[in-house]
Specification:
By secondary structure, the protein is mostly helical. It has one domain. It contains 5 helices and no strands. Keywords: Membrane, Transmembrane, Transmembrane helix.
Length: 133
């Protein structure tokens, strides 16, 4: 559980930090300058990029506290909050691939799919009854 929460926090946290502090780079060159994804969906808006980065860091902070405490209710809340963002984000990108090269479309869809599948799997784990000793 902790490893999954930490993975989500680090992955989303890195993206949020870059969006907040280097929004133009994120827009132009994410994930790499050779295969940018974000710039294929124009237009660039610095305000929006920075706001999304800050909001991402807000829910990442909840993921971090959940990873540290592993308190069941907080873990569920953190994963649910993560899914509130990642599900519509995944759906939007999966349905707007027209301008993407095939490799980028596949890579982006798989990467964003993990951001939905992992929290769903972790959330399902929290719904199981704890084992009796």
């Amino acid at each position: 559980m902790r490893a999954g929460l930490v993975f989500l926090a680090v992955a989303q946290g890195l993206a949020g930090l870059v969006q907040l502090f280097a929004p133009r780079w994120f827009y132009d060159d994410f994930p790499t300058a050779a295969t940018p994804w974000v710039s294929l969906l124009p237009p660039y808006n610095e305000h929006l990029m920075r706001d999304v980065g800050a909001l991402t860091l807000a829910y990442v902070s909840v993921l971090v506290v959940a990873a540290v405490t592993l308190e069941r209710r907080l873990v569920r809340t953190a994963l649910a909050a993560n899914l509130v963002f990642t599900v519509p984000h995944f759906v939007f990108h999966a349905t707007h691939l027209d301008h993407f090269p095939v490799g980028s479309a596949i890579g982006q869809t798989l990467a964003l799919g993990v951001t939905v599948a992992l929290p769903l799997a972790l959330l399902a784990r929290t719904l199981r009854r704890p084992r009796s000793s």
